[in-house]
Every structure is written in structure tokens, then in C-alpha cells.
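SAMPLE LOG
Freezer: B-3
Tube label: C17
Construct: single chain, 156 aa
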Amino acid sequence: MTEQLLTADIALIQRIIPHRYPFLLVDKVVDIDGYQSGRGIKNVTMNEPHFQGHFPGKPIMPGVTIVEAMAQTAAIMVGTALDMADKNMLVYFMAIDKAKFRRMVVPGDVLEMNVTTTRGKPGGKVWKFAGVATVEGEMACECEFTAMMDLSAGQE
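STRUCTURE (predicted):
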């Protein structure tokens, strides 16, 4: 028997990570396979604050926010798998490596972030991930990143 893949909707996401508007960059995470992999979904809309200045007349989602959306996807994936809802988990970037940007992401796009754990285990603090963000199957960004997951932040 295969294990059922999990999904995190916006209500669960807000119970796992502390991010809120305007910095919550993931609408849902689907196909969560334990803490091994997951796929985040971000509906890119014109009303996001970074589009006012990046760039006037030609709105393009900044690359750093694409990478942040992948990191949030990873945190939600791990948080869902490890039942971290309502436990005040905090996540901190430690490194971003091999980041490449291949396609502009603009309002109206649906950004999909496929994230895979390359190092990390339940109870561990330092995790490594590989991420690929796509729009309609076309690669927008790929990178590797390392994060410290403070799983005990709210348990003191």
C-alpha cells in the first residue's frame, strides 16, 4: 500500500510558518511526500507590492522572492510532515547556491515550486534542499539552499 500524499492549504500554511502578507509567498503545497518532496503553488497577481517598483510598466517578480517562495515551500513541506502546526517553527536561510534564472515570472502566472530534500531528518536543525520553479512547465528558476529549522522555537 502506498502512503497518501499530503496537501497544505492556506489555513494550514499559516499554522506552520509565521509569514504573512506581504511576505507569504505560497498559496498551497501539494504532493507532499513526507519530508522528502513537495510542490508549492503561487498565483502571481498584479496587486503584490514588489510590482510597484519592479518594474514600473513591466512587472517582473524579483528572483529573490522566487527563491524565498521555494524556501517557504520547503518549510511548509517539512512542517506538514513533522506535524509542526501551531508550534511556532522558525526557519532561517543559511545558504543559497547555484541559483539560475531562466524565465521572467509576471502577473497572471502560476508559479510551481518543486522542492526536494537533499539533506535533513526529523529532529535535525540543518536541512538542504534542491528547488526548481516553473511556469507552465518552463523553468523560471533553480537553486539549492540550506536552512536551519528551529523546531523547538515555540516549545520552551
